[in-house]
Amino acid sequence: MSRITVIGGTGYAGSAIVAEAAARGHQVTALSRSLPDAPIPNVTYVQGDATDAATLSAPIEGADVVVGALAPRGPLAGAFRDVYGTIARLADAAGVPLYVVGGYSSLRPARGADRFVADLSHVPAELHDEIRAGAALVIEDLPATPATLDWVFVSPALRFGAHMPGERLGRYRLGDDIAVQPEDGGAISAADYALGFVDLIEKGDHHRAQVNLGH
């Protein structure tokens, strides 16, 4: 089993990944600003600020796999890309792969087409900055990291979030940077996203690549 550190391990996606990985017997450490009300058994929780490199250092150095499950909003609104820059640097130095919880807008509707983020005219203006920041990770930042850093950027289906939690179906479909075409509206629950996410970690078939998970 692997030692998996989840940065942002009490958020919507992060907590589901923590639960799935722990259920499979992995040794999981969850780093977040606040501790959960209902801790998952056999998970080590570390309370700390992800903008502090010293806070990130030990959980990353002690891991076999690092998961970034941070959102480009709230306290991280202006520091999101810089924080991931630090995470990437530390993961590279530790020689461990980095798996990132991505967003839908960085995907493409078809081969050779522009990414969805290129046209946000249908999205409320107050969400534009966080969508662009999230997409910039896989468009600019991760590809610019040293070739020694192994990363995988895992985008969910369009309707993904605490506002549309969905139910665990025990299945998912895997695509690359082309959005999996929805069969039931394009949603995927956190539990099924985590199922696919941990499968990706365990199989280790993707390297410096973007993939997406949907029903």
From TrEMBL:
Q: Which domain of life is it from?
A: Bacteria
InterPro entries in the record:
NAD(P)-bd_dom, NAD(P)-bd_dom_sf, Polyketide_Oxido-like
A GO molecular function annotation here is: oxidoreductase activity, acting on the CH-NH group of donors, NAD or NADP as acceptor
Q: Where is the NAD(P)-binding domain?
A: 8-201
From the UniProt record, list the coiled-coil ranges. Answer: none
Q: One Pfam family from the UniProt entry?
A: NAD_binding_10
Name of the molecule in the record = NAD(P)H-binding protein
